[in-house]
Specification:
The protein has 160 residues and is an alpha/beta fold. The chain has 8 helices and 5 strands. α1 links the parallel β1 and β2.
Length: 160
Amino acid sequence: MILAAPTISIDGNVLNRRGDDESDRRVDRLLSLSEERAINFVIAGGIRDEVLHPATPKEKKAVVLPQIYNLRPGRNSQQEAERRAVATILQGNAKPETHAADASHLSEAAETGCAYFITEDARILRKRAELAAALPPSLRIVTLEEFLEVYDGYVGGKYL
């Protein structure tokens, strides 16, 4: 049986190198899986905009810019309502619009049919259970380490 490569979206922070061997190996592995076409990235338009900032490292730009990204087409009223729900959850007690970009990244991942949204953002990760109620059940929010564990399970036949 041939499985289709999963479509995933990543938060820009997933590609940050921390200087420790284990986390840097995970970043290298994710990039390798992408190069081998074992996974497909769909990058949120907002992530692409963030990466275009002049201070973004060239290595990160080289990974993100060639990927498929959401062109941010017009949204219908249901999508707008879903986006507001995600934004409300992420905002919490913060000032309005503080986490609007993160809400947009998550919503774009849902709208483009991604199976995973990989992030290292502590706020998003803490609110996964709440966000699950506002996002499609087909979209899972995971850390890079969690994604690689799931991926290895599929490849190893554990989840088939």
